Backbone:
């Protein structure tokens, strides 16, 4: 766990979901947290040096860019976990790859340009591993994605659930070549200067894309506003901030209560992700919540409160044991 100052905690709570898209973002942050621009900038650089912050940049909505995504799980014999995890992680389409406590023990996310490509990758993984017991669980309804930890203790335990989305029905946008060039840069870590968007414009001009800082800011802000960018902010290492435990809560809900219980689950601050996913013959669950806490006991308490609020049966809590891979998808890298 990193040693965070009060300023670090205020800054990190602000920038996980809302890093300012502005000519002088650290000056904007300084006004929000009651500090100087120099002190806020130094705080961010220190947290990056201490690996509290993985990167600052855009998390794109894959469906808005015309891509498809799914959550997968594979039942791997204990003695083959490292081998199979390594094979799965070699695919650039795999962004997250975890060992969890269950018979289906390796869980990974797949993003590709089409559902057909996802199907082909899963066929390849089954052939290479000689394991056909693989779950393919694309999101049916999305109730919440907000990886945004409160390090100041100022938030309530429940909030307002966001609007429900159906990823498969999401309308994709068409980007120009200049916009794709910007999207490629926004997937990286922002330049560490006081004027990162001016630096992005300069990098684009170096690559033959004739744009200004104003254009970069306007395009980025518009994508945040219309949901093409799902989150523009800091990706953090949770355990470095004290949130050492996370469990994927796997629930079974009646079909006629999906939207009701999804909204309740999404209202919990400790829940970062909430989805409806399809059932499978070997896997009856249809609701998923990512629960974060400082300990297993905290995660279990959140699950208990969700259960009491929804009236659902006891969930399976699949704790993360190892992180094999955690990265962002590289869109338009074909």
Residues:
């Amino acid at each position: 766990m990193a040693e965070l100052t009060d300023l670090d905690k205020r800054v990190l709570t602000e920038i996980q979901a809302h890093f300012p898209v502005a000519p002088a973002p650290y000056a904007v942050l300084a006004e929000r947290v009651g500090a100087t621009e120099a002190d806020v900038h130094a705080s961010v650089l220190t947290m990056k040096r201490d690996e509290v912050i993985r990167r600052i940049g855009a998390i794109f909505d894959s469906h808005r860019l015309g891509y498809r995504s799914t959550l997968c799980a594979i039942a791997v014999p204990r003695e083959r976990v490292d081998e199979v995890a390594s094979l799965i992680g070699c695919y650039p389409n795999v962004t997250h790859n975890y060992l969890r406590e269950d018979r289906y023990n390796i869980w990974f996310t797949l993003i590709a340009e089409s559902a057909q490509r996802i199907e082909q990758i899963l066929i390849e993984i089954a052939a290479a591993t000689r394991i056909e017991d693989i779950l393919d669980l694309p999101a049916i309804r999305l109730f919440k994605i907000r990886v945004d930890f409160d390090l100041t203790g100022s938030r309530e335990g429940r909030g307002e659930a966001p609007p429900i989305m159906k990823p498969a029905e999401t309308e994709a946008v068409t980007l120009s070549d200049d916009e794709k060039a910007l999207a490629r840069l926004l997937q990286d870590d922002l330049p560490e200067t006081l004027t990162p968007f001016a630096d992005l414009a300069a990098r684009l001009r170096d690559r033959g894309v004739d744009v200004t800082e104003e254009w970069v800011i306007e395009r980025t802000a518009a994508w945040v506003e219309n949901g093409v960018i799902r989150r523009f902010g800091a990706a953090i290492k949770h355990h470095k901030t004290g949130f050492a435990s996370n469990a994927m809560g796997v629930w079974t809900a009646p079909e006629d209560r999906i939207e009701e219980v999804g909204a309740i689950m999404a209202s919990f601050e400790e829940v970062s992700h909430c989805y409806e996913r399809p059932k499978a013959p070997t896997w009856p669950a249809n609701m998923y919540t990512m629960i974060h806490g400082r300990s297993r006991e905290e995660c279990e308490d959140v699950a208990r409160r969700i259960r009491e609020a929804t009236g659902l049966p006891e969930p399976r809590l699949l704790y993360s044991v190892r992180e094999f891979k955690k990265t962002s998808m590289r869109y338009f890298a074909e």
Summary: The chain has two domains: 1-50, 64-164+239-326. The chain has a mean pLDDT of 93.
